[in-house]
Specification:
Layout: H1 2-8, H2 12-77, H3 80-86, H4 94-113, E1 117-124, E2 129-131, E3 136-138, H5 140-149, H6 154-162, E4 168-176, E5 179-191, E6 201-207, H7 209-219, E7 226-230, E8 236-240, H8 251-255, E9 260-265, E10 268-276, E11 283-289, H9 291-340, H10 350-388, H11 397-403, E12 412-422, H12 428-431, H13 435-454, E13 458-465, E14 468-475, H14 482-507, E15 510-515, E16 519-520, H15 525-542, E17 548-550, H16 559-579, H17 583-597, H18 605-623, H19 629-638, H20 640-645, H21 650-690, H22 698-704, H23 709-720, H24 724-739, H25 746-752, H26 758-769, H27 773-779
Parallel strand pairs: 15-17
Antiparallel strand pairs: 1-2, 1-6, 2-3, 4-5, 5-6, 7-8, 7-11, 9-10, 10-11, 12-14, 12-15, 12-16, 13-14
Helix pairs in contact: 2-7, 2-9, 3-4, 9-10, 13-14, 16-17, 16-18, 17-21, 18-21, 21-23, 25-26
Length: 782
């Protein structure tokens, strides 16, 4: 009845759980099959690993024995008796016969000391003589001996002894009425001349088959596994089992296949495990019939079927119990979620309703927290600015200070301001960030370093305005006397100095700091703020940088000092107007400067003339160098020094300066118009052929052509209506655009067009083209 009701009310969870139940039925079956096949794989792998380990042990033992045989050959190769016989011209002299007897005794000792050896023979190629432990053979005797003992013909045997062997194994077989007999022989050249194609002496060591088979019994190798050895000529010897598989394998195919592979043959299939000898040319082979582990598979299959049946039975019971227990709480949660949370998209079933309800609550909570966090920082900064500017009185501080987590422990306050003079490595162009983001980053750096240096003794609150980083500092304990006041101000100034040095060292950001006097009382904070703003204005006016200035250290400038500063600014403006060829405004500024130099109450006329000489120097520096003979002749005729010295009054001196100014301007204009076209064309050609030089700039070009930099820039812009630096960049960018189709990456192109980094080229490219090089390449499919 309940199931019917659920179905009629379109309770989608019910249908979902039905599908889940089917999956639960399928899961144990799938897992059982998975376990079954993996168990088979594991059993097979384990059996193969055991046999591979056994084969590896056989290899180690046999290789060890072979290594001992090769050592015997090495010992014989340095034996003086063997060398004597090898190179003797009279092989059967009495002395040599005695030596042969000694060698035979040595061979017998080697056989006795190494039970792996059945016999040892030495063949002397020069004398065509075969030396054994029991005698000496030559001629036809050797043929009979070889056929009887080596079970091969003289041709094959001769090929072996005439080749230089470093330890080559040969397996010879011969069929008899009683069965097949194998003989395994190690051929090793023990005396060979340099670049000789055949050895002087060849060692032949016959391996004891019984001892080799004994290795298997000592390792307890499986009776169901067949073990063989095969040499490089596909000659083999079965150490146990039969040779039914060997016609299907050969030495070269074994070398090129995996160490374990399956092989099908007429009576069934087998797993082949093989490994190569590290000492000789042998390959060790172990074949294992697949039936070895088939009976184990059947046993595991029975266990798996029992496991699947048990899982199905227990699964049905668990489904029923879990469904009965969990459904009603789920329905209750769905009802609560639907009533208390407005969900626009309820979803497909009860789970979706609950999930969407929770997601809606979490999203609303996160959004609220983000809004509060975004608003808190600027509101707190604005609140501090209002305190600094005196727009909040102490009476209204209570609730607001709690809201913004601001407290003051005493009535002693200091205001400190950091003025950013240069961004160093953190610039909008280098970092790819907006200017306000850089200001926030710099403010974060200054705030954290200052808090670290001075936060222990003071309550410090940070805000910023117009690029200035402002700190309102409250002393944690009240200051009793003037000494305490001075100490606190000095301490803050010292912390500011350390902060400036640290930031300069690590970030290359140029800063200056202003520190107010200590003010007693909350209502004096605006006064402290006014003091630091005056310090900043003073610092910028005096063009100071990287300094910490305390308000008490500034002496108020007199009106004359301020006028001097203004005049210095006027001189700079005068020079800038000359550099820009704005002679009209330059003339107006010149009149203002002369009015200051020649006040109505001037008394020292010589000082005034010296200052006028300075104006002439400013003109010449701004307008260019004067080195040619025409320049010298012109200034000799103009003679500005004499004209100013001979001036008898201020009015006459002013007139002379104006005439000199007009004459120099006219001369420079005529000079530039005469030489500009050819010279600028030559400079343009120089830039076009040297744009790839990273050191190419206005200074290097001016040096190349012997010009003043300002003069060069002026004539170039006058002729091309483009600044020389802009022209260099445009030339580089045009060449970079043509290289974008060559397949070079941005770093390589930037080096080829004269930029010291890819970032510099990307920044410049975007400035002139409006897009980055990558976007440009993508846009035009270069």
């Amino acid at each position: 009845m309940q199931v019917k009701k659920l179905f009629q009310s379109q309770n989608k969870v019910f249908l979902t759980w039905i599908a889940t139940s089917i999956l639960i039925f399928l899961i144990p079956i799938i897992l059982g099959e998975f376990v079954y096949y993996n168990s088979i794989s594991i059993i097979k792998s384990e059996v193969e690993n055991v046999h591979q380990a056994s084969l590896q042990q056989i290899k180690i033992l046999v290789d060890g024995k072979m290594e001992e045989l090769k050592k015997i050959g090495n010992n014989l190769s340095i034996d003086s008796k063997v060398k004597l016989l090898a190179y003797s011209k009279n092989f059967y002299s009495p002395k040599n016969l005695y030596t042969m007897n000694e060698i035979q005794n040595d061979l017998k000792k080697y056989i006795v000391s190494n039970n792996f050896i059945e016999n040892i023979y030495l063949y002397f190629n020069g004398s065509k003589c075969l030396l054994t432990g029991s005698g000496i053979y030559e001629g036809d005797e050797i043929k009979s001996f070889v056929e009887d003992n080596f079970m091969t013909g003289m041709e094959d045997w001769g090929n072996q002894i005439n080749a230089v062997n470093q330890g080559n194994i040969r397996i010879y077989k011969k069929e008899y009425n009683t069965g097949t007999k194998n003989v395994i022989i190690l051929f090793q050249s023990i005396s060979a001349r340099i670049n000789s194609k055949s050895p002087e002496v060849t060692l032949m060591a016959v391996i004891n088959n019984e001892k080799l088979e004994g290795v298997l019994s000592s390792l307890g190798a499986s009776s169901k596994a067949n073990i063989f050895i095969i040499d490089s000529r596909n000659e083999y010897s079965e150490l146990n089992g039969d040779n039914i598989l060997l016609p299907s394998v050969n030495y070269s195919s074994l070398r090129s296949t995996n160490s374990i592979f399956n092989l099908e043959y007429k009576n069934g299939s087998a797993t082949i495990i093989h490994t190569g000898s590290a000492v000789t040319n042998l390959e060790y082979i172990l074949s294992m019939p697949s039936s070895v582990f088939a009976y184990k598979v059947r046993y595991i299959k029975m266990i798996i079927y029992f496991y699947i049946g048990a899982c199905l039975f227990l699964g049905l019971i668990m489904i029923y119990l879990i469904t009965k227990r969990n459904y009603y709480p789920l329905m209750r949660l769905t009802q609560i979620s639907s009533k208390n949370v407005s969900v626009k998209n309820p979803g497909k079933n009860e789970y979706n309703v609950i999930e969407n309800a929770i997601n809606s609550l979490v999203h609303d909570k996160e959004s609220a927290e983000k809004r509060i966090k975004r608003q808190d920082i600027p509101l707190r900064k604005n609140f501090l600015l209002r305190i600094l500017k005196g727009r909040i009185n102490k009476a209204s501080m209570g609730d607001l200070s709690k809201l913004y987590n601001i407290r003051f422990d005493s009535d002693d306050f200091i205001v400190m301001v950091f003025d950013v003079e240069n961004l160093g490595r953190i610039s909008a162009e280098d970092c790819g960030k907006l200017e306000n983001e850089n200001e926030e980053l710099i403010g974060f750096i200054i705030q954290n370093i200052t808090m670290e240096l001075a936060g222990d003794n003071y309550l410090i609150y940070f805000t910023d305005i117009d690029g200035l980083n402002i700190f309102l500092i409250n002393c944690k304990t009240g200051l009793a006397d003037s000494e305490d006041l001075k100490f606190s101000q000095d301490h803050i100034a010292e912390a500011a100095k350390k902060a400036i040095n640290l930031i300069k060292e690590h970030f290359d950001i140029g800063l200056s700091a202003a520190v107010s006097d200590i003010k007693a009382g909350f209502d004096q904070i605006p006064s402290a703020y006014t003091e630091v703003m005056e310090i900043i204005e003073y610092k910028r006016l005096m063009e100071k940088s990287n300094v910490v200035i305390k308000y008490g250290s500034i002496e108020k400038n007199s009106q004359d000092e301020l006028e001097n500063i203004n005049t210095m600014k006027s001189e700079i403006e005068f020079m800038n107007y000359l550099l820009d060829n704005d002679f009209k405004n330059a003339s107006l500024i010149l009149d203002n400067i002369m009015e200051f130099y020649l006040p109505p109450n001037a008394t020292n006329f010589q000082i005034i003339k010296c200052r006028m000489f300075g104006l002439i120097n400013i003109m010449m520096n701004a307008l260019g160098e004067f080195k040619s003979k025409a320049d010298v002749d012109y200034f000799s005729e103009l003679d500005p020094m004499k004209r100013m010295i001979n001036a008898k009054s201020g009015t006459e001196l002013k007139n002379q300066i104006r005439e000199i100014f007009k004459s120099i301007i006219d001369y420079c204009s005529n000079k530039e118009s005469g030489e500009t076209p050819d010279k600028v064309d030559e400079i343009i050609d120089f830039i076009n052929h040297h744009y790839f030089d990273q050191n190419l700039n206005a200074s290097t070009i001016a040096m190349q052509y012997g010009m003043n930099v300002s003069y060069l820039c002026r004539i170039f812009k006058k002729r091309t209506e483009t600044g020389i630096l802009d022209y260099i960049h445009k030339c580089r960018i045009e060449n970079a655009k043509s290289m974008l189709s060559t397949g070079l990456n941005i770093t390589e192109i930037s080096e080829k067009v004269g930029y010291n980094s890819s970032l510099a080229m990307i920044r410049t490219f975007k400035k002139y083209e409006g897009v980055t090089p990558g976007k440009y390449r993508e846009k035009f499919k270069l």
